[in-house]
Amino acid sequence: MIFLAEAPADTAPIPMNRIATEANVPRKFLELILADLREAGFLHSHRGKMGGYRLSRPTHLISLGEIIRVIEGPLALVPCVSRTAYRSCTDCKSESACAIRRAMLRVRDETARILDGTSLADAAAVEVLAAA
Predict the structure, then answer these.
(1) Could you tell me the pLDDT band of residue 125, with boundaries at 50, 70 and 90?
(2) What is the sign, positive or negative, of the torsion defined by CA atoms of 2, 68, 30, 32?
(3) Are 88 and 80 in contact (CB under 8 A)?
(4) Which of 69, 75, 102, 127 is in the most buried spot, having the most CB atoms within 10 Å?
(5) How far is residue 123's CA from residue 27's CA, in Å, rounded to a whole number?
(6) Alpha-carbon distance 72 to 82, whole Å?
(7) pLDDT in tens, 64-113
(8) Which long-range contacts (CB under 8 A, 24 or more apart) does 125-131 make?
């Protein structure tokens, strides 16, 4: 996604092989990721000789949190604090009294705050600065 974010908005779609090479990701693995991102509405795909992928929204409107949730799943480290995949712990006597759960809630909230508050544009800008 950062590689696509760094491409000028008016360029032709970027072929999967080029993305795989530039991002150093195996093509088969990338194919699965791109399909998930396309289904989630982050990418447009174009078929044919001049086909490839491009972002479907401006980079400042896509957060890292959104991308990670599509690729990796919930941000929460334990299911009892997840907002999208909540499940109670089988060995917990009382969620309200659980010290681990309270700590994990803080971890989830801070993780979400940072990742949801960081846009793809922000991440791409950091990449450019790091490369300079």
Answers:
(1) confident
(2) negative
(3) yes
(4) 75
(5) 23
(6) 13
(7) 999 999 999 999 999 999 988 898 888 888 888 899 999 999 999 999 99
(8) 127/2, 127/6, 128/6
